[in-house]
Structure formats: C-alpha cells, structure tokens
Write a structure and sequence with these properties.
Length: about 375
Amino acid sequence: MGSYLPGTKSAGVTMSVSQMVKSLYPNVKFNILTEDRDIGDTVPYQNVELEKWTSYKEASVFYSHKYIQSLSYFKKVIKSIDFDVYYINGFYNFKDNARFFLLYWLRLIPQKPIIIAPRGIFSMGEYSSHNFVRKIYRRLFELSGLLKKTTWHATAQTEEEDIRKGFVSKQINIEIIQNMNDTKVLEKPSSLQKSNGEIKILFISRISAKKNIKLALNALKSVKGNASFDIYGMIGTEEDRLYWKECEQIIASLPANIKCKYHGEVAHEKTAELFQSHHVFLFPTHGENYGHVITESIANGCPLILSDMTPWNDIQQNKAGYVIPLKNESEYTSALQKFIDMSQEEWSSYQLNTLRYAAHRLNSEEIAKKYLNFFSKL
C-alpha cells in the first residue's frame, strides 16, 4: 500500500488497514509492503527500520524506498516471505499496483488468491479526473484475465455497485464487509448546551474538492441565527491548496452571523473532544466507501448532515441527522436551519438517537467474524 503507520496523512485508508490488522490479530497475520515515508513527505520515517521486514505493532512491515521501483526489486521483496493471500489496497496506483499485476500476470510471483480493496476509488466522485486513462487501465486488467482471479472487498452495497459499473464483465466476485472500527461509543451523551438560534458546526476531513466543503460554506450563507463553523483537516496537494483558496473567498463573503475558522490538522486523539463539543457534523462529501470520520461523529453523539454518497444513508430514518442529495443545495441550508432552531430538548433527542445508532452499527465482534470467514474461504 502507498503508506502505513506511523504515517497519518492518508487518513481513512491507513485507519481502515491498521484497525483490521489490530482487530484480527493473532488469528490473521499481516505482512505489509509500504513506502518508507508518509504521503507528500520528502524524507523517510525516522523511527522505523527500512528495507527489511520488521515488526510494527501487530504486523510485519517492509518499508520500501520510495524511489526504488524496479520489477526485480518488487519481486524479490514479495518472494522473501511466506503468505496465503494478497490483499491489495486501492486500484489506480500505477507505481505499485500495476507492477504487482504485471508480475502476477507473468507468473513471476506466487500465484496466491488476490483480494482488492479499492477504498472508494470507484465512487462516482472519483470518476471526474483521469477518466480515459483509468478506463483503459480497467479494460486491460479485465482482458488480462486478472479480473476473474480477483475477489473484491467492498465495504458497502454502494461500493459494490460502483465496482460493477467499472467493468464490462458481469462475472465479478465481490464480498461486502464494512470496515473494522475500534471507536468507543459514549455510554451517555456529553453535557453540551444548546440554545435556540445558535449552533456550533464541525467539519473534519481532508480539504479537497472531493470532500466538498464549498457546498457546506455556500449552504451557510442564508441561515438565520448565529453559527460558528470550525474546520479541521490537512491541505495536502497543490490542487488542494487552490481549492482552499476558493473556499477562503466564500468565507470572506459570509455574513456577520456566521463565524468560520480553519484550525489546520488535528491529531486523531483530539477528535472525540471536538465531536462532543459541537452540535452537528456537516459533511457533504462526493463519495466515501466507508467514512471513518462518520463513525467518530456517531460514536461521540454528534448528529450529522451528510450527502447521499456514503454507506450511512439510514442515518435520517434513525433520527440521527439528515442525508441530502448533492444536487439539492438548498436542502442543506434547510437542515442547518432546523438544527439552529432546535431547543436543548430537541437537540438532545438527536444526540441520544445518534449514540443509539452508533451502538447498533459499530459492533466490532460481529464484523471481525465476517472477516475471519472471508479470509478462511480463500
């Protein structure tokens, strides 16, 4: 995979893998081949051993030099260990995944079963850029015969549907199991106070076009009452920086009753406190195959306003928030206004419903059993 612990910048992907590794140990033992640095970093990690298999928490990890990309090197690392199945993160990583697929197709590495976890890359929100190249890549993968040898790991029915849309063949093996999650659900709601006509809104995620914070900002323009909007997240790429400049222009145009502040990145151990101190989590994302940040919100009793591009579309029917199609921007404003106008009693009801919903959805023992059964069948 591109990056793993102790890296943090790939956020949800690293969290998905590390929690799976932790939860299934010692029944399943993972050997992880990854880069020697975090996304965007110019220097390797300082606190791990490089270019050798080494123990890191519950896994055996090989931190490979970022700029060593030869097929012979990749083949040597893979053949240096014993294992039962390949578990590939992502799909369009041409540097790593394409090398693996070529070596496997040429039968230069062990012909073990393949699992691919695309991590949301097939969602419609990811189709807008590089579409032609990706279409050719998918077609070559299919024509090579590798599609027939692959089992896909989708984390929701929506992701299964997205995967099937990407290929011509209808004979695709897909297993749906939601991501592991070790987020602890609060036993009782926080003591956060709520007054009519006031609200504290939270956004935590990477600052990028996919996360769609511009819609959130635009939706706030016409609300009545006093609202504070706290934004946390990494601005990673140049594309992200340009997108944030557009967001800053909208922030500058917000009316006086809307207070918006960007706080930069936040350490994972601080997020629970943030969710417990805000009235609603606003997240109009263009697509999530899971959404770890959503699980943190519900586990801490913070109601949500989400797009309909996540696996959590039953939040509204459980009265834990609102799920709104992206095309209906005015409905985001309406949902925000409803939260602003709520009394303490009304908002506390949503808070309690959110915790009940979390307790139902985040049953880690049942999810772990599904993973063990999945791996044992291959």
